[in-house]
Amino acid sequence: MSRAARAVIDLDALRHNLQRAHTASPEARQFPVIKADAYGHGLLPVAQALTDADGFAVASLEEALVLREAGIQQPVLLLEGFFHPDELVNIQQHRLDIVVHHAAQLDALESLVRQQDIVKPVTVWLKVDTGMHRLGFSLEAVSDAWARLRACDAVNQPPRLMTHLACADDFHSTRTQQQIESFYRVLPGVQAERSIANSAGILGWLGSHADIDRPGILLYGASPFLDETGADRRLRPVMTLRSELIAINAYQAGDRVGYGGRWVCPEAMTVGVVSIGYGDGYPRHAPTGTPVLVNGVEVPLVGRVSMDMISVDLRGLPDAQVGDGVVLWGEGLPAETVARAAGTIAYELFCSVTARVPRNYV
């Protein structure tokens, strides 16, 4: 019999969350970000469920080819562009959009024109570094990069313009408005489609709504903002990580639980063992007190997380039985709440769920 750990993926909730993006930014086309196996939810099932998406954004050529080979016909954007010029042939063949963020990529596109008798132009999104300071052309270098793309026969004309917001999750930061203003000062008068908004931009920064948005974490039901949960933005959880109690043990005051014996029973009590651990993607650094739902009742994690199991304090649930259902995050227990307790973010929780945890799509 298989282990009880499983990730239940609610595709109706996924579609609901995309509709929330459309409602918040009604004039923009929506390109759901489904990189990293759709944040751990399953690249292909997520793409196939989002039939209303205007396009998709991924991180690698390999992800894009999975979509194309499955018959996904919407535009697919490579968020980091291409890593080697040899990838351009596949990009042309499969009609993929690319981000151009570095001069070496410009050089490769210009070389492509010299190498091919008949060039199949690609759709390029020119990335502008307005303050993230990770990828993109500086404000001073954008004009030259734009001119080179406009003169390149390997590029569908005109290119698009994009940037990425660094602090949009924090309403108190002034940097987001500065980034938006800087982006619109770039190439004044140029007629080009533009893309700024990530999830936080879509839900919280009206000035970032442009021609194309790139919703990420909001699709999966988590809020992009500090100190919020998805429910605060009328989002629905898509992944519910479930398991079961596999043992219930009675201990005495002073008994030590788990590796290292770090947690000591304060009194005679029962402790439940749940079939989930860091081998499944549950955060190893989750401390004692991290909330867990057993039969819909919140109980605290106790002791260290091990590879295959965690222990929970059942003093508040005296009728618990082996086989009772457990929710680690998702329906009834926001991923953001668990993430804050564990010192991480919902993005990491979702992406960390390992391949040995089956995804059940409903």
UniProtKB/TrEMBL annotation:
Isomerase found in the keyword field = yes
* Cofactor(s) the protein needs: pyridoxal 5'-phosphate
Q: Does Isomerase count among this protein's keywords?
A: yes
Q: Identify the GO cellular component terms for this protein.
A: cytosol
What EC number(s) is this enzyme filed under? 5.1.1.1
Question: What SMART domains does the record point to?
Answer: Ala_racemase_C
Sections of the chain in a coiled coil = none
Domain (Alanine racemase C-terminal): residue spans on this chain: 238-362
Top-level EC class: isomerase
Q: What are the GO BP annotations of this UniProt entry?
A: D-alanine biosynthetic process
Give one Pfam family, short name only: Ala_racemase_N
For this protein, what is any one GO molecular function term?
alanine racemase activity
Q: Cite the entry's keywords alphabetically.
A: Isomerase, Pyridoxal phosphate
Q: What is this enzyme's catalytic activity, as reactions?
A: L-alanine = D-alanine
What pathway, per the record?
Cell wall biogenesis; peptidoglycan biosynthesis; Amino-acid biosynthesis; D-alanine biosynthesis; D-alanine from L-alanine: step 1/1
Looking up HAMAP family in the UniProt record yields: Ala_racemase
Indicate the family of this protein: Belongs to the alanine racemase family.
For this entry, the protein name equals: alanine racemase
Q: Which source organism? A: hydrothermal vent metagenome
Q: What is the lineage of its organism?
A: unclassified sequences, metagenomes, ecological metagenomes
